[in-house]
Amino acid sequence: MQWARRPSQPRPAVWARRATPPGAFLTSCPSGCPGRRALRCYKSSSGHRPDCGLRLASHRLPGQRGPRKDCEQVLTHLSVQRKVSASTQNQAKSALLFLYKQVLHKDLPWLTEVVAAKASRRLPVVLTQREVRDLLLQMDGTMWLAASLLYGTGMRLLECLRLRVKDVEFSRREIIVRQGKGNKDRVTVLPENLLAPLHAQLEKARVLHDRDLGAGLGEVYLPDALAVKYPTAPRAWGWQYVFPSPVLSDDPRTGKRRRHHVYEQSVQKAVALAAKRAGIDKPCTRHVLRHSFATHLLQSGYDIRTVQELLGHADVKTTMIYTHVLNRGGRGILSPLDAL
């Protein structure tokens, strides 16, 4: 039996025109710019290519359509043909805006006036305390410690993996989150049950760091050009990652051989595998642990302002989404069926 190949979805003509090699726009982004990661994740995770065609903006011939027409065509294609969610549409718009401003150095004031797609209000997936316990029991080692920190502190995944040794305060039972979402610092709680495992993790990291120093390496990436201001800081123990990678790698920005932190997809895969082994039917990702942290704090009677500060939300309205757990059953009512 011969299977017919499903025809591929048509793409806008603007995506078919390509003047530079794929991915070349990333090399044009300023080094250390936070938008580099956003564009890279957007291109790899969704399969969309916001750089295609738009790179022709600086090489257009007279009479060709301008960037406004191309951007509108790309955004329309995503919403009509691809039928992507509102968050994906807004992500594409942000990627286009960053591309023109930071890479092509062109000001497009009309792009900021494009109405953003209205996202549907969804309740977050939350695990019960029993489900969290069963999930963590299926993990061990570094992955267990990272997942336990996500649930015990409410940190985001990259905030956890980018944690430095100097930002763990054992005496005050707190963790300082540096350069979180919105480039803001905050303080969160350090669970007492993780004090001993964290000490053991730091001992393993110290062994790796001493080995790297003996080999003439041992440098770590520092943000905001701190390595220029403090030349010895990249080798200092306090600046090392709590979760260093087991392998060395070459920094694509400088070419230096360094030890980065644990790859984030390693934790994501470990959490997904543990949820499958624990028999959890809910969609379980690493961010579900952060949702569960906030929900269980509210269930324990903590003030919503306290939870807001621990999560690092700029607006309390973002934290208010977790208050649905305070309602017993369906909005806290007694079903008439139960009264029969």
UniProtKB/TrEMBL annotation:
Molecular function (Gene Ontology), one example: DNA binding
InterPro entries tied to this protein: DNA_brk_join_enz, Integrase-like_cat_sf, Integrase_catalytic, Integrase_integron-type, Integrase_recombinase_N, Integrase_SAM-like_N, Tyrosine_recombinase_XerCD
Keyword terms, alphabetized: DNA integration, DNA recombination, DNA-binding
Family: Belongs to the 'phage' integrase family.
One GO BP: DNA integration
Protein name: Integron integrase
Keyword Transport: no
CDD domains: INT_IntI_C
